[in-house]
Design a protein that fits this description.
heterodimer, A: 645 residues, mainly beta, Tachylectin-2, Chain A, Jelly Rolls, 2 domains, six-stranded mixed β-sheet, six-stranded antiparallel β-sheet, 4 helices, B: 173 residues, mainly alpha, Butyryl-CoA Dehydrogenase, subunit A, domain 3, elongated, vacuole (chain A), Fructan_Metab_Enzymes (chain A), beta-fructofuranosidase activity (chain A), zymogen (chain A), transmembrane helix (chain A)
C-alpha cells in the first residue's frame, strides 16, 4: 500500500493545529536545551504525521488489482431481496459455479412417481447413495471391473470409499462389496480417485489418492489380495503407504488422481499426477518407478497450460493414427499420437488435446497449441466430469468412463436417496478423417439391449414444423438419425452463431433434430439438434446442441443449453445417435466427434406419457430425416448373486 | 512540552495500533469480500467471528459456511414454530416444504461444504453453496401469495450468505 501523497487538508490542518499547553514563560529554559527542544518538536511532529498517515492509509479503501473470480452470481436487481444468478447459457459448456435460474414461479412439488422415474434402466448407478469419479477400471479373468467414489451412508459427497461392480460385457453390472474403505491414517479422510496398471506378469497395481488424517493429499498403493479371484473382492494396502508425498512447490491439497502407468523405452514405469502452479497454471507432474513403491519425481512436467487452474483426473494415453483399435497404455512409436486430458477444477469441464509424447524427455506437446489442454476441445459438452479411460486387452479397445452428477436440488437427492450416474462406456478412437478429434461411441455391447426397432425413411420436416414419431414407449431408446437439408431461400437476417438460447432460437439452417422425453402437448421437451451456421468465408460451421431449458416444468432444476462445434465434412450428412434413458440423455454427433451428456427431470413427460418428435425450427431449409429407433431393455443392474454360484 | 510529547506519543500509539496485524487481516477480508456479491454482509458476517482475524481464504470460507449454518438453523426453528401454529393448509404446505429444504441445507449442503473446504476439494463446496442458495429461494417461492411468506427476511439472509460462501469457495478452486 502506497502512502497517500495527495493533498490532505486534515493532515495539513493538523500540522498547523495549535498545541495545548504551550509552554509559557513559567520555566525559563536553559540556553543549552533550546536545540534539544527544537529537535524534540521536530521528532514529535514527524511521529505525529506518520501516525496520521498510517491512520489515513488504513481508512482508505483502495481499488484492488485481484481479478474478480466470483461466479456469475451477479444479482439481477429485482426489488425483492433475492439474488438470482443468470445462468451462463453459453453454448459451449456450463460452469459449476453458475446458479440455476429460478424463475418467478411457485416452487415445484415433486412426487415419488416422478423421482422413481428418474432412475436409469441401463446406465450404471449404485442401488442408492452418492457416487462420483470412476476409478481403476480394468478387465481381469473374464470380468470388467468398475470402481467408483462412493458414500455408503448418504446421497451426498462424503465418507468416500471405493464402490465396486463387475460385468461380463460393460453393460450388465453386478454390485460387489466395497473394495476399499478409509481405514488408515493416510486415507482416513477419503479413499479418493485412482487408476489401475496391469503389469506384464499379471500383477495388478492400484494407485490412488488418500486424504490423510490431516487432510493432506498423498498417493497410496493397493493391490488385490488374491489375483486368482476373478472378482477381485479383497484389496490390500501396501504397508509402506503413502508412496508419494506432494513435492516442494506443490500444495498438499493440489496433488491427486494418479494415472495408469506406462512403460518407458528404458524399461521403467511412469505415472502422471495433476496439479497447478501459482493458482492458474494447470500442469501434470511425472514420476518414474521400477517397483511401484519407490518413485522419483522427474524434472519438468509432462505439460502445463496457463490459465487453466488445477488439473484433476489427468488421463494420458496413446491412440493409433489410421487405426481401428485401441492401444495399450505403453504403446509408443510412429503412427501414434497421445491424448492428454484434464478435468478442470475451475470450470468442472473435461478437456483433451491430441499431441506428441517424447519418451526421451517425458514431455508432451499439443498438435495445435491454440487448442491445448483446457482451452480447446472438450471430452463432452454437457454435464460430465472426472472421466477416465482404460485399455481393454481382450477386445483391444480404449474404453472411456465419465461421471454424470445430478442437476437437481439436494433436497430432491436426499428424498430420492441417490445421486449420480456413469455414462455408457465409450470406445475411443482417433478420428482419421479430421485428424483433430477423437471419436467416442457407446460400446457395441449396449446394442444387446436393443429390443424392437422402428424405421422412418426420408421424413420431410418443413421449416418451422414438428413431426411426431409413433414408436410406443419413449423413455429407453437408442436412436440413429440422419438429416439432409434442402435450402429454400437465402436469409440475410441476424444469425444465431452457436447453440444460442436453444431450439427456440431460429436461424437459416437450423435448429433441426429430435425432441426427446417430450409429452403430447409439448409442455416438456428436450431438443437435441444441429445448427449449421454460415461463416464469413461462405462455408458452414455446425453446432451440435442439447437444450434442457424446457425439459421440465419444475423450477428448481438446472436447465442449461449445452453444445459445441462439430466438424461436418463435405461428404457427410448430419448424423446423430442419442441414447435416452430416463433422466440421462447421451447425444453423439458425426460418429462421436462431439458428444453431449444431459440430465433432465421432467414432471409430465414420464412413463407412458413420454414421446419422441422430429423438429425443424430453421427458417431457410427443409429437412429430410431417416431414423432407426430401438426400444432399450433394462440392464437389470443388481447385486452379484453369490448364493447362485 | 512534556504534555506535547505525551500527546504525540499517544496519537502515534493509537494510529499505529491500526497497523500491521489487524490491518492485513481486515485487508484479506475486504479483498475476499469484494469478490462476493454482498460486500457489506460478507465483511460484517466474517468479522463477527473472532477466527477471521487470523484466517486464510480457506478459513474465511469455513467461517462463511458456519454463518450459513447458524442462520439456517435459526430459520428452521422459526419455520417449525410457525408450523405448529399454522391452520391454513396452504401455509402448512409451504412451511413443510421449507422444512425439507432447510434440512437439506443443514444436513447436506453445509457438512459437504465444510468437508470439501477442509480436505482441499473446493468444487464440492461451490456446488453445495449454490444448492443452499437455491433451497432458500425455493422455500420462499413455495408461498403462493396468498399466503405470503412469514420468513422472507430469513430466507433472504440464508440465500445471500450462501452466495457469499459460494463466491469465497470459488476462490479456492
Amino acid at each position: 500500500m502506497e502512502p497517500s501523497t495527495s493533498h490532505d487538508p486534515e493532515r495539513n490542518s493538523a500540522f498547523y493545529a495549535p498545541l495545548p499547553d504551550h509552554p509559557s514563560s513559567g520555566r525559563a529554559p536553559a540556553t543549552r536545551s533550546r536545540p534539544l527542544k527544537g529537535f524534540v518538536v521536530i521528532l514529535a511532529s514527524v511521529v505525529f504525521l506518520l501516525s496520521l498517515v498510517a491512520l489515513i492509509i488504513n481508512q482508505r479503501q483502495e481499488p484492488l488489482p485481484t481479478p474478480n473470480r466470483a461466479p456469475s452470481a451477479s444479482p439481477t436487481s429485482k426489488p425483492a431481496s433475492f439474488s438470482e444468478a443468470e445462468p451462463r447459457g453459453v453454448a459451449e459448456g456450463v460452469s459449476a459455479k453458475s446458479n440455476p435460474s429460478l424463475l418467478n414461479e411457485v416452487s415445484f412439488n415433486w412426487t415419488n412417481a416422478m423421482f422413481s422415474w428418474q432412475r436409469s434402466a441401463y446406465h450404471f448407478q449404485p442401488q442408492k447413495n452418492w457416487m462420483n469419479d470412476p476409478d481403476g477400471p480394468l478387465y481381469h479373468k473374464g470380468w470388467y471391473h468398475l470402481f467408483y467414489q462412493y458414500n455408503p451412508d448418504s446421497a451426498i459427497w462424503g465418507n468416500i470409499t471405493w464402490g465396486h461392480a463387475v460385468s461380463r460385457d460393460l453393460i450388465h453390472w453386478l454390485y460387489l462389496p466395497l473394495a476399499m474403505v478409509p481405514d488408515r491414517w493416510y486415507d482416513i479422510n477419503g479413499v479418493w480417485t485412482g487408476s489401475a496398471t496391469l503389469l506384464p506378469d499379471g500383477q495388478i497395481v492400484m494407485l490412488y489418492t488418500g486424504s490423510t488424517n490431516e487432510s493432506v493429499q498423498v498417493q497410496n498403493l493397493a493391490y488385490p489380495a488374491n489375483l486368482s479371484d476373478p472378482l477381485l473382492l479383497d484389496w490390500l494396502k501396501y504397508p509402506g503407504n503413502p508412496v508419494i508425498f506432494a513435492p516442494a512447490g506443490i500444495e498438499t491439497d493440489e496433488f491427486r488422481d494418479p494415472t495408469t502407468a506406462w512403460l518407458g523405452p528404458d524399461g521403467t514405469w511412469r505415472i502422471t499426477i495433476g496439479s497447478r502452479f501459482n493458482d492458474t497454471i494447470g500442469t501434470s507432474l511425472v514420476y518414474q518407478t521400477t517397483n511401484f513403491t519407490d518413485y522419483e519425481l522427474l524434472d519438468g512436467v509432462l505439460h502445463a497450460v496457463p490459465g487453466t487452474g488445477m488439473w484433476e483426473c489427468v488421463d494420458f494415453y496413446p491412440v493409433a493414427i489410421n487405426g481401428s483399435v485401441g492401444l495399450d497404455t505403453s504403446s509408443l512409436g510412429p503412427g501414434i499420437k497421445h491424448v492428454l486430458k484434464a478435468s478442470l477444477d475451475d470450470t468442472k469441464v473435461d478437456h483433451y488435446a491430441l499431441g506428441t509424447y517424447d519418451p526421451a524427455t517425458d514431455k508432451w506437446t499439443p498438435d495445435n497449441p491454440e487448442e491445448d489442454v483446457g482451452i480447446g476441445l472438450k471430452v463432452d459438452y454437457g454435464r460430465y466430469y472426472a472421466s477416465k479411460t482404460f485399455f481393454d486387452q481382450v477386445k483391444q479397445r480404449r474404453i472411456l468412463w465419465g461421471w454424470i452428477n445430478e442437476t437437481d436440488t439436494e433436497t430432491a437427492d436426499l428424498k430420492k436417496g441417490w445421486a449420480s450416474l456413469q455414462t455408457i462406456p465409450r470406445s475411443v478412437l482417433y478420428d482419421n478423417k479430421t485428424g483433430t478429434h477423437l471419436l467416442q461411441w457407446p460400446v457395441e455391447e449396449v446394442e444387446s439391449l436393443r429390443l424392437n426397432s422402428t424405421v422412418f425413411e426420408e421424413v420431410l420436416v418443413e421449416a418451422g414444423s414438428i413431426v411426431p414419431l409413433d414408436i410406443g414407449a419413449a423413455t429407453q431408446l437408442d436412436i440413429l438419425a440422419v438429416f439432409e437439408i434442402e435450402s429454400l431461400e437465402s436469409n440475410t437476417t441476424d444469425e444465431v452463431s452457436d447453440c444460442g438460447d436453444g431450439a427456440i432460437d431460429r436461424s437459416t439452417f437450423g435448429p433441426f433434430g429430435i425432441l426427446v422425453i417430450a409429452d403430447d402437448s409439448l409442455s416438456e421437451l428436450t431438443p437435441v439438434f444441429f445448427r449449421p451456421v454460415n461463416t464469413s468465408d461462405g462455408s458452414l460451421k455446425t453446432y451440435f446442441c442439447a437444450d434442457e431449458t424446457r425439459s421440465s416444468k419444475a423450477t428448481d432444476v438446472f436447465k442449461q443449453v449445452y453444445g459445441g462445434k462439430v466438424p461436418v465434412l463435405d461428404d457427410e450428412n448430419y448424423n446423430m445417435r442419442v441414447l435416452v434413458d430416463h433422466s440421462i440423455v447421451e447425444s453423439f454427433a458425426q460418429g462421436g466427434r462431439t458428444v453431449i451428456s444431459s440430465r433432465i427431470y421432467p414432471t409430465e413427460a414420464i412413463y407412458g406419457a413420454a414421446r419422441l418428435f422430429l423438429f425443424n425450427n430453421a427458417t431457410g431449409v427443409n429437412v429430410k430425416a431417416t431414423l432407426k429407433i430401438w426400444e432399450m431393455n433394462s440392464a437389470f443392474i443388481r447385486p452379484f448373486p453369490f448364493e447362485e454360484t | 512540552m512534556a504534555n506535547m510529547i505525551r500527546l504525540v506519543i499517544l496519537q502515534a500509539v493509537i494510529s499505529f495500533s491500526f497497523l500491521p496485524g489487524s490491518y492485513s487481516a481486515s485487508n484479506l477480508i475486504e479483498t475476499t469480500c469484494k469478490q462476493t456479491p454482498f460486500f457489506d454482509l460478507c465483511v460484517s458476517s466474517l468479522q463477527s467471528d473472532p477466527r477471521s482475524s487470523s484466517a486464510d481464504v480457506a478459513g474465511l470460507a469455513h467461517i462463511a459456511a458456519d454463518n450459513v449454518n447458524v442462520k439456517a438453523t435459526a430459520t428452521l426453528q422459526q419455520i417449525k414454530g410457525l408450523l405448529e401454529g399454522a391452520t391454513d393448509p396452504e401455509l402448512q404446505k409451504a412451511l413443510q416444504g421449507c422444512v425439507d429444504k432447510y434440512n437439506a441445507i443443514i444436513q447436506a449442503d453445509i457438512p459437504v461444504a465444510i468437508e470439501a473446504i477442509v480436505k482441499g476439494n473446493p468444487k464440492f463446496a461451490v456446488s453445495s453453496a449454490t444448492d443452499a442458495a437455491n433451497e432458500a429461494q425455493s422455500c420462499e417461492k413455495g408461498f403462493a401469495n396468498p399466503p405470503s411468506s412469514p420468513i422472507s427476511d430469513s430466507n433472504k439472509d440464508v440465500n445471500q450468505l450462501s452466495l457469499v460462501l459460494q463466491s469465497i469457495a470459488s476462490l479456492l478452486l
